[in-house]
Amino acid sequence: MTRKVGSNSQQTKQQLLHVASMEFATKGFQQASLREICKKANVTTGALYCFFKNKDAIFHAIILKTKEMILQQIQMHHLHSNDFLTKSDDENHIQDTNTLEHLLTLYRKEKVVFDVILNNRNHPEVIALHDDLINTCSKQYKEVLTAYQKDIEIDDFALTFFTKMEIETIITCIQNDFSDEEIRYHGKSLITMLENAFKSFIK
Q: What is the pLDDT of residues 93-112, one digit of tens each?
């Protein structure tokens, strides 16, 4: 029997989100069908529209919490890395490796949602998340560089380019689901490359 909104409305909403997550992760946002989502969730389309205005609203609800956790993890990383220019390479590698490991732990915990994000990178919500990550990292790197050398001239294009490389490095590690040992092995080389890139801004 198809479920309608009633006393178990929260359960109905969660079931819709669960099924939609699987559909978006495997088929992609464009190919996923609201009708198919309702059918697999055993929910009427009327019940779906009681919770969500449209397919974009469902997508937003699915990734919101995980998106906030990703941004928080990146912000915490930069908060603890604001003196990376004065730290030893080994200290920086430990900090950066820990961040990658934390993100991988989050990925394993929220794998379906991460797959929704990674498999729908052209969706406006995901583009906005990518831009937020780049803007957050670029801003914090700029603050670190200017605090280290007040008269520094920063090439914003180059800074954004290197920041995009950092984000893509994180995405690569997540998509490959590296083990902690692989993170330490591959991450060290990638992190060294990125650190040298940022240090090139210093005269």
A: 666 777 777 888 888 889 99
Here the tokens at position 123 are 């969706």
How many residues can be counted in the chain? 203
- How many CB atoms lie under 10 A from the CB of residue 35? 9
Return phi, psi of residue 3, to 5°. -80, 140
CATH architecture of the region 9-52: Orthogonal Bundle (1.10)
Half-sphere exposure of 20 (CA within 13 A, CB side): 25
Handedness of CA 80, 72, 96, 135 (dihedral sign): negative
What three-state secondary structure class fits 3?
A: strand
Domain spans of the chain, in order of start:
9-52, 62-199
The 3-state DSSP class for residue 203 equals coil
SS3 content of the chain, % helix, strand, coil (to 5): 75, 0, 25
pTM given for the model: 0.80
C-alpha closest to that of 66 among 101, 25, 103, 29 = 103
pLDDT in tens, 40-84: 999 999 999 999 999 999 999 999 999 998 888 887 776 666 655
Tokens standing for 71?
């941004």
| Host H or E run for residue 162 | helix 156-175
Distance CA 131, CA 195 (A): 21
